[in-house]
Every structure is written in C-alpha cells, then in structure tokens.
Amino acid sequence: MPKVTVTVTLKPTLLDAQGRTVETALHSMGFGEASGVRIGKIIEMQIADGMPTAEAEARTAAMCEKLLANPVTESYRIEVEA
Amino acid sequence: MPKVTVTVTLKPTLLDAQGRTVETALHSMGFGEASGVRIGKIIEMQIADGMPTAEAEARTAAMCEKLLANPVTESYRIEVEA
Question: Which domain range does residue A65 map to?
C-alpha cells in the first residue's frame, strides 16, 4: 500500500507558543545551544492500493484542507511513497 | 546554524487513539482510502554554530530522552543538517 506522510507546521510568521515553552525548558535543563524551536505534527497513513500517486497526493491535500491542518495558520507538506 | 529535526512517533505496537479518531473522521468525510493513520510530533530547532554534527546528534538525543519524547512509549529519529 502506498504510504503517505503529511507534515503540518505552523506558518513561520506566527509565534509558536508550544515551541517557545519547550525552548525555555531546554535552556533551564542546560541545553542552551537550542534556539528557534518549533513544533509541528506528522501524520502517517496508508492509502488504498491501486490509487495513482498523483491522485493520492490530491486526495491527501483535500484531507489536509478539510481536517488535518488549519490552512489559515498552518502549512503542510505531503510525501507519497509508492 | 545547523538545523536539527526530531520526529517523535508512538511505538508501533501501541494503539494510537488520536490516529484512530482521525481515521474514523476521515472515513466519515468520504476519505475511505485512508488506513493505519498514526500521528506524531516533529520538532525543528537550530543548534549553536560550531558544534560538530556528531555532538549535535548526541546532545539532541539527550534532549529527547529528558524532555522531547517519552522513551517508554515513543521512539524518535534525529536528522542534523549542517
């Protein structure tokens, strides 16, 4: 079955409060070398056999627009492995 | 600055309740071709200049063990781009 990986990240211009919190925690734990921490989601799934790669990509993009990402604040990247 | 990407995923043997919920939602929205949906985290950060790649990897692994991942239930993958 083709495997699809979707990476959803907050748009770069938006403040990532979760990332900022993690960065502060890392610094207080002695990991001062970390900066610009940003946190996103990764969604892995299988797509039914027999669907061409282009169609799998288009269907996954529709999933992202409707459910997996918030297109207003997040951007997403789709990778399809046949 | 070297860029580090950490991907944290639930161990394959564990039930991913969030992924199961998303899969059910996708099916009810007409995306019946999706199966085996699993959701993880992706953490991107910059590491201070001048740290060798091997050290950046080792330091990031320590961050994962102590904060970024739960080593009991999650596995993580580290990629360092110089």
Answer: 3-81
CB contact under 8 A, A41 and B37: no
As a whole-number percent, the residues of chain B with pLDDT over 70 amount to 100
Here the CATH number for the domain that contains residue A53 is: 3.30.1280.10
Residues A55-75: tens digit of each pLDDT:
999 999 999 999 999 999 999
Q: What's the structural domain count of chain B?
A: 1
Residues A45-78: b if buried by 16+ CB within 10 A, e if exposed = bebeeebeeeebbebbeebbeeebbeeeebebeb
Residues written for chain A: 82
Q: Which residues in chain B touch residue A45, judged by CB atoms under 8 angstroms apart?
A: 23, 34-38
B47: nearest CA in chain A? Answer: A34
User: What average pLDDT score do residues B15-29 get?
Assistant: 98
Question: Rounded distance, CA A9 to CA B44, Å?
Answer: 10
* B26 half-sphere exposure, CB direction, 13 A CA radius: 27
Does B47 contact A59 at a Cβ distance shorter than 8 Å? Answer: no
Q: Taking CB atoms and an 8 Å limit, are A1 and B67 in contact across chains?
A: no
Span B69-79, average pLDDT = 97
